Each structure stands twice: as structure tokens, then as C-alpha cells.
Amino acid sequence: MEKTALETDIQFLPGVGPKRAALLKKELNVSTIGDFVRIYPFRYIDRSSIIAIRDAAPDMAYIQIRARVTQVNLYNSKGESMDASDAKFNAVRRMSVIVTDGTGYMEAVFFKGIKWMYSRLQPDEEFIFFGKPSVFKGRLNMVHPEVDKEPARGNTGNLNFNSSMSGIYPGTEKLRNGGITGKVMSRLMENAVNMALPCIEETLPKYLLIEKGLVPADFALRNIHFPKDAAALEKARYRLKFEELFYLQLSLLKQRYIRRRNENGIRMPKVGEAFNICYNALPFRLTGAQKRVITEIRDDMKSGHQMNRLLQGDVGSGKTMVAVLTALIATGNGFQACIMAPTEVLARQHFRNISGYLEGTGVKPAILTGSSRTAERREIHNGLEDGSIGIIVGTHALFEDNVTFRNLGLVIIDEQHRFGVEQRARLWRKSVCGLPPHVLVMTATPIPRTLAMTLYGDLDVSVIDELPPGRKPIQTIAANERRRPALFRFMKEQIRLGRQVFVVYPLIFESEKMDYKNLETGYEQIVAAFPFPPYKTAIVHGQQSNDEKKFNMDAFAAGRADILVATSVIEVGVDVPNASVMVIESAERFGLSQLHQLRGRVGRGSEESYCILMTGDRLSKDSKRRIELMCATENGFELAEEDMKMRGPGDLEGTQQSGLPIELNIASLAKDGMILNDARQCAQSVLDKDPTLSHPENRLLAEEVGKDKYKARDYSQIS
Ligand code: ADP
Ligand code: MG
């Protein structure tokens, strides 16, 4: 078959050639003309309007100014002025051009292409300067503006898309250096879109276009690049976003349909005796939410389909209990269960708690971590292989190749974000019985449901939306350095009352060294203010050996230390009910969800609890907002939503967009929640009527979902 324009190598686009093609490939991952036209502008400018210099301000986006050149100055690398007449242009490092439009003056600055610009910008001549305004030494300034004789009427060029707005394309330093400036991009795009348009095929069935009021694919392509007007742009944008999200949802839901149709799960019909013993011996009554979730899990496990469930519950909502009961269903049906924790400290803590719950049930858990000794390790390997170990708690060590299970039936993953999908897949393969184990992923990162299902792929979602009764609200207070003496007095008072205190320092990897320095300085400060005797302070951080960490953690958990100084990496999930104060140092450096997680470490006992956010004096707008939100609410879902609005889900802890089966080009999971919901519903109703997408009117859908890019990294199918 003949290649269409879309498949044509980008180097054959007029104005590109092999060198620029290589650059486009490297910088924008563009190989063909089809790829190129999928690079959309990230902003649009109405180029029909011209601004007076007097009205221009540095916080404006791109603007156009019409002004006359009054002065041109050249400077060498030392910043010395050079005489234009004998200037050797390769010695010129900077050209400053002063222009005026009668309302004020502006400086245009050039560092590159000076010789050519110099010849163009003749004194007293008028030009259009297009660029982003800034202020330098009190004067309006534009660095590397585009310079034209006439105001651009949308797109100039040979094609005349008759557009009143012009798009700004993503650019990089390297692209600009290689001659692909914003203006060149636009010009290339005109050609590319013109070549692409005749071969654009519709990718959505007609009935969907009509039902959803979507514009056709070619209209969308034309208007996303060269919008006829604002309304056309909006329609184009909506269509492209919808399409992207719709196909994402369709592929996810289709996989789910296949998983459900296949009888590929281990059937676990009983709850078993141990479950009942444990349940009846609980020191508290399960919350309604815990009960509901356990029922959902039970239904999955006896269905004959593989369970693939995400359990969301705020910190302290009692997920561990659910994990224990779930594991007991597995052992009650003669299968092994494994519970994965992201860190050694957490694995040990789970092991302790779980051992407690399992007393009297006859089921004994084992633990395997990186620091398990060789002899111990061998014993555990044997126990897993011969099936004598029913429940194993562990860390990444469980992924090792020499670990095999006799009949692994359930994998529970706590705090999902530390485990990649690939790692999960490795566990599947450890199951000898041939069927993939049931999977329960637990997370305290509360994210909206549709988003969760999208981010985590083909998962069902359960939510524990209720905290155990009797929790006292945690008082959250922001304070600065001046109030440190008061903080220390308060800590002493709490310690005198028999309580314990966490002091947490940020650890952000780019500046790890400095962070440790802060931690050490902080620790010294604490030890000086809280001398031994009577005060005992322990410290835990990532540079300690596992034994050291364990020793210090245990000391704090057992009440042998009053204060635990720690880095943020260590602590997630640590349960010390007697700790009533959480001090977070440099709180402005933490994200909302992390602050919330940390705060969740206190308020677990019956005492009044406090979270103190220590911050610097000068906070960015975002930091300030985060601190205010923390003081205003304890609701994790509310905080997560705010977090997402502020940062986008790509940054939300544990929710990397890279986990998606396809990369999103134009839609944003954070900002397009409404379209996402709509797309999911629409995909669901299409599949309800035609689960295999075999009706003729769904031919396009079947074709699209069948493409390689949707070939699911569907690890639930690997067994
Ligand atoms: P998380 O969801 O953060 O993992 P945990 O499972 O660690 O929460 O539970 C937090 C605390 O609440 C634990 O001390 C646990 O014993 C207690 N807990 C769990 N469920 C209940 C309940 N139904 N009633 C009272 N306390 C509970
Ligand atoms: Mg937990």
C-alpha cells in the first residue's frame, strides 16, 4: 500500500530536511508528518491586537507592539559597548535595541542571529515586535522578540487558513538553536496540516459524533492548529480531548470485560475457621465501611474471577484489619497469602500487628525482608515452597527469583505507589498453581473514583469512607521559627504527660546531602533542648543500616524514647498510638498528601493530638495555601482534590501518569475530570451493547482499540 502523507518521514516536509528531522525526533519525538501534526499549540494569541508600551506589563503573556527603532547598541562578552561601524559580529554577544511607540520605550534584546537582525532593524523604521514582555532595570524589555514589518494576520504563509489566532508550539532551546523557532514551527505546521488534512480519517463512529455533538476529525485538526475563531478552537479541543479519554476508557473497560468473562480466578468459596476465630476475637467492632469492603472482597474471591481491587482508605481508617481478614480467606481455602510493604520498617510493623490479630487462629505469619539473615531466609524459602507458611509479610525481597510459593492465592500490596506494575507482575509468575493470584492494592491516597480507575488501569475500587469511632480531631497549627521556644515548652509538657513526639524533616532527593545536614542540625538542636536525662531522643533515617533503623524504631514504638526525629521517607504507616504530637519541619516543602499522611501518624490513641507545621517566613502562594488547607480540614479526600487542582495528578504521590496504557497528548486527568467521566460513561454504554465491538457501526472502535498502543500492559493476564 502506498504511504499516506501521515506516514511520510518528517524530513520530507518542505523546510525540514535530515538535520532538522533528527532534531525534531530527539526533542519532540516526531518521526512522521502524522506525528508532527499531533504536536498541538499549548497557547493561542490573538495577533490582530497591538498593545501600547505604556499598557504592557511583565505578567502578560505574549504581546504585540508596534514601535520605531531609536537606538541600537552592541556589546562584547565583557559587556563593553562596541562601535557598530567596525564591530566584528562574531565578537558581539548582545544587541540592545531601544524602540518607542510614543507611549513609552521598550528594549528588545538579542543574543543570537545578531548580524542579520542588525541589518534589518534600521533606525527610525517601524516594526511589529512580538514576544513575552518582562521588566529589566525598570524598563520594559523583550528578549528575542519576533520582528515583522506587518502585524501577522493569523497565519501568513501560502495557505491562508484564515485564522485570527495563532498557536504557540512547545519549543526547546535546542530546537531554537537548530533554527526551529516558534515562527518556523508555525510555518512548518501550515504545510504539514495542509498535507495531512486530505488523509485524515474519522476515528469515531458517526453515531457517537452525533450523540456527543463532536466535530469531525479533520475539522478538529485544522482548528486546533489554526482556529477560525475561539468557538471553533473550543470545539476542536473538546473533540480531541474526548476522543483521547474515550479510547483510554474503552481499552481499559474492554480488558476488564475480558478479565471478568474468563474463568481465570482461583475460586475461594469458604471463609474458613481462622477467619471466624479472628473476627470474633477482635478488640473492636468493624466499622460499616470495613464490613462493606470485606463483603466486596469476599464476593470477588468466591466468584471464580481474579480479584483486582484497589482499596482506598484514609490514614487510620483500618485497612490493616481488612488485609488480615482477606489473607485469612485465602489460607482458609488452602492458599498462601503475601502482604507487601514498601519499607522494612512498615513490613516489621505489619508483621507485629498481624501476629497479634492472628493469635489463637492457628495461622502463623512469617516475615522476609532485605535484612533477613541467610539461615532464616532459607527456612522461609522452604516454608513457602512446601506451603507450611500461610501468610508472609515482606518487602521487595519477596520479588527475588529464588522465592517460590507452593500455592500463592493472594497478593496484598500496601501503599501501592512504591510498587511498579512490573514488579507486581513478577509476583504473579511465582504462583505455581497456574492461575493468577487475587490482588488487593491498598492506598491512603484518596483520589476520585474515575481517576483511580484510570490511573490504576483495570481495577475495581473499594473505599473505606469512615474512620473508627472515638477518634478525636487532630489540632493542626502553623508556626514559624520565632515560636520554637513555645513549641519546645509544649513538647516538654506533653512528654511530662507521658506522650511521645514525632519530629519529621523533609527529604527531597535532589538535595539529599543538604537535607541530611538539616536533619542532623535539627537533631542536635533537639538533643540540646531535651537533654538526657530525663529526655530520650531517637533518630531514624535512610542512611542508617537496617539494624540501626529497627533498633531506633523499636525503642520509640516501645516507649523507650520520648522523641523520634526522622526523615519523611521512613515514617509512612508507622503506628505508635501513644504518640500525640507530630512536628513537621520545613512543612512548606511537603506536598499536601504527604503532609496529610504524616499527620495521620498521630491521633490514633485516645489522647488529644496535635500536628505542628513549622515553616519559614517567606512562603510561595502555593505553600501558603497548602498550610492553610491543612489547618482547615482533616478530610483526606478534600485535600487530595485540592492537591490535584494545584498540582495535577502527575504529581500526586503514587499516581504517575506514566502508568497509563496510552500517553495523553491533549487531555489532562486533572483538569478534564468532566470529560473523563463523560468519556467513561460513553465507553461503558458502547460496551454494554456490544462487548466485543463486533457490530459494524463499531468497526472504527475495534480497529482503534486493537492498535499496538492500547495493547495493554495488562499484567493481570500474565500467570
Ligand atoms: P490504616 O488504614 O492507616 O492502615 P490501620 O489499619 O493502621 O489504618 O488502623 C489504624 C488504627 O485503628 C489501628 O490502631 C487499628 O487497630 C485501629 N482500628 C482499625 N479498625 C478499627 C475499628 N473498627 N474500631 C476501632 N479501631 C480500629
Ligand atoms: Mg496502613
Structural summary, described in words:
With 719 residues, this protein is α/β, with parallel strands linked by helices. Among the domains are: 3-46 and 154-199, no CATH class; 53-148, Beta Barrel (OB fold (Dihydrolipoamide Acetyltransferase, E2P)), CATH 2.40.50.140; 273-303 and 318-443, 3-Layer(aba) Sandwich (Rossmann fold), CATH 3.40.50; 474-633, P-loop containing nucleotide triphosphate hydrolases (Rossmann fold, 3-Layer(aba) Sandwich). 38% of the residues lie in helices and 18% in strands. The protein contains 24 helices and 23 strands. The strands form 4 sheets. Strands 2, 3, 4, 5, 6, 7, 8 and 9 form an 8-stranded mixed beta sheet that branches. A 7-stranded parallel beta sheet has the order 13-14-12-15-16-11-17, sandwiched between helices. A 6-stranded parallel beta sheet has the order 18-23-22-19-21-20, sandwiched between helices. Mean pLDDT is 85; it is low at 154-159, 650-659 and 712-719. The site of adenosine-5'-diphosphate has 18 residues, from helix 11. Magnesium ion binds at residues 319-320, 414, 573.
